[in-house]
Amino acid sequence: MSLRIALLGLLSAVGPASGYDLAKKFEHSLNHVWQAGHTQIYPELVKMAADGLVEAEAEGARGRKTYTITAEGKRELHEWLAEHDPSMTIRSEPALQAFLLPLLDDPDQAIKVVERIRARYLARLEQLDCLPAEGSFGRYALSLGRAQVRTGLAWAEETLADLRKRRTPQ
Amino acid sequence: MSLRIALLGLLSAVGPASGYDLAKKFEHSLNHVWQAGHTQIYPELVKMAADGLVEAEAEGARGRKTYTITAEGKRELHEWLAEHDPSMTIRSEPALQAFLLPLLDDPDQAIKVVERIRARYLARLEQLDCLPAEGSFGRYALSLGRAQVRTGLAWAEETLADLRKRRTPQ
DNA sequence: ATGTTCATGTAAGGCGTTACATGATTCA
DNA sequence: TGAATCATGTAACGCCTTACATGAACAT
């Protein structure tokens, strides 16, 4: 259901757009919040049009279809935002690897794992830092996303220090 | 694939266990890292047994089946931990709501949304604080999980302060 | 002419959620 | 006897990923 909401939110924020545009926006502005590729977005827009949440406008150059949010779509969006209790479901592969770390007897191996996690967080942080302020629309989510990644990075640094201390007790 | 890994990790850490046990462990120790209910776990264990990663032992009382990790299972687990580049895929409903906040013109409405997010993070933090040290097996993941939740909570507090300032400019 | 970007889709298969369904054991 | 807990599963449906497939327009 949240994919719909994300699409409605983008349409509401940036105005009419094609599936292609929305896929780009996803990558550049919602990336740290929700993920979806064009193969998920195109069919979903068709369903949303069938449900009256968006309207497909006349095709333009290169088969381009422009979608616009409807009043009904805006209503659904606002209702979700105002009423929906956000689920705390989490599936984090870095955290799963962190969970499994004690299985590695060799501290050097554990260090390698954490170094890889650290590199991933770092790359992600750089990616977020390059995001355009973008009319500052996504500012709240961006500050949350950045903080979360920085937290992951800090955890990695601390854990590395800890593991290195254990490796060389003296 | 990660569900398998999580199950192999638990079996490796706590020894032979039933699907029921594993579902409980999931809830009490992997909760902030990965989520899965018994309806996902039971069929997965059957598949894993077919793939030779675990062995189902004789049935006990009340139809209980005990699973043990095999050498092949341990190999897969260690390989994943050592080689797998963790995916950064994230789908966070709180963050999606944060993203959409600027759509609300009324600051009071925005405040309500953030207050609900804050309450959810707070509840989650209390839940984590009640977790048993549990032989401290999940210690690294727990510290990461706690830090992540605290970050979300801090974001909510800051955002509330910011929104309240905007509401009453004087 | 060739490569890149724009633009759209389908299909198969796996992962995840919710609802449904059953029955034994233990404790009050 | 009745309620709670232990213990297992199936089915339907929806969400997500990966791979496949097509073609127009534009820049070099």
The CATH class of the largest domain in chain A, by name, is Mainly Alpha
Residue share in helix of chain A: 55-70%
Report the CATH architecture of the largest domain in chain A. Orthogonal Bundle
User: Care to count the β-strands of chain A?
Assistant: 2
Describe the structure.
Two copies of one chain form a homodimer. Chain A contains seven helices and two strands, in the order αααββαααα. Chain A has 170 residues and is mainly α. Chain A has two domains: 82 residues, Arc Repressor Mutant, subunit A (Orthogonal Bundle), CATH 1.10.10.10; 75 residues. In chain A, strands 1-2 form a two-stranded antiparallel sheet. In chain A, strand 1 and strand 2 form a beta hairpin. The model of chain A has no long low-confidence stretch (mean pLDDT 93). At the A-B interface, helix 1, helix 4, helix 5, helix 6 and helix 7 of A face helix 1, helix 4, helix 5, helix 6 and helix 7 of B. Chain A binds a DNA duplex (28 and 28 nucleotides) through helix 3. Chains A, B: Keywords: Signal. Chains A, B: This is Transcription regulator PadR N-terminal domain-containing protein.
